[in-house]
Input
Amino acid sequence: MLRQIHCLLDCLAYALHPGTDYRPLFIGAWNTPFEVEEDGRISYFSASITNEVYRTMFEQFYRQQLHAWYDHRLNKQQNFERLRRMIMRIQPNQYLLVQLDLFYLKYETRCYRKIHQPHFVIILEEQDQHWSVVDPYFSWEGRLHEEEISSAFCENPLGEGFLLDTTNLSRPDIHSVSSYLEQELVQGHNSLVQEVKETIRKFTDHAAEFPKKRLVRTFSQIGILAKRKLSYQLLYDYLVASTSPDNDFASKVESLVKGWNAFGYMAIKASMGAAKLEQLWDKAVQLEQQEEEIKACLRSVQRQWKEAQ
Amino acid sequence: METVQSEQHIHLFLKKAISSLLERPELLEELTADTQLSEIGMDSVMLVNLMVHIEQEYQVFYEDDELLEENFATIGKIGQIINDKVSSGV
Output
């Protein structure tokens, strides 16, 4: 079952499913990059964060080009014309992935006209100036007028797009999967927790420079980053080749994601003076321990999986 | 009967708190148990603010598991959870 994990990876998984196993694609999604903006916000997107690592991994696993069609040398309008030409001649086994700004998309009421967030969707076809869109992340499918897509595309401060042909996909080979797992499943290091701790320390030690009211914005994207941690479950299921989830492992992952979500709420409380910075710190430490347990469990399953190959 | 009175009290408390947070007094009359709070402009900051009010008023505490957007979607849902918490004393 597809879940909200990572909008680009969810789009690719949608295109691969059900014929090809998409789960290896989520290796390392738990370590998804983030950036600390000038005002301190920990953000999942920025001009310097690209999806090149996922494109490379996709091509290595499935032996099929994931064509990056968006041309950064062209302006938005020129890229949109390019997108329009591509959608006119799209083939049945092809998927056109495009990054839009959720601020302009009516179906996502949480962000519409409120929050700017880059987000990948799949465009299936065009008919009478209406484009068929699939959004696997938000489990939404429908038709949008070209004008709405044009705004969400052209006003997006960033820009990316991919074309995928699923005609000749290979199955991910064990060596590639194993190699990526070795690289991404690193115990004793947690970049998100590390950054969160450093941030809390700044708020604690330099209160004048970092007033608590800024906590809201600083941690406003923690919930989105936390959803990436659901990728542990996909890899666990892949390694144990199981269709029935292990409830114990699943509950550990659920608890981690909910814990990060609670951290986000706690940060808002702290900004109002209704929670202490020490509580935020303790929560970060607790989440770090929880994730270490998950990694240890996954590492153990990985060893058994390797021996069985 | 006691539960019904308690539910009415909780709903009234929530309506007052929400209309105050949004600075829209007319909502006191307009809000129903099923009004989607996201559609009237309640964002995550306001929801946490509301949560703090609830915790203070009813002496309850939200666990990590309960901090889900769907648990704060409507007055009916929030009220139901408060009622459960008050009844079980957590």
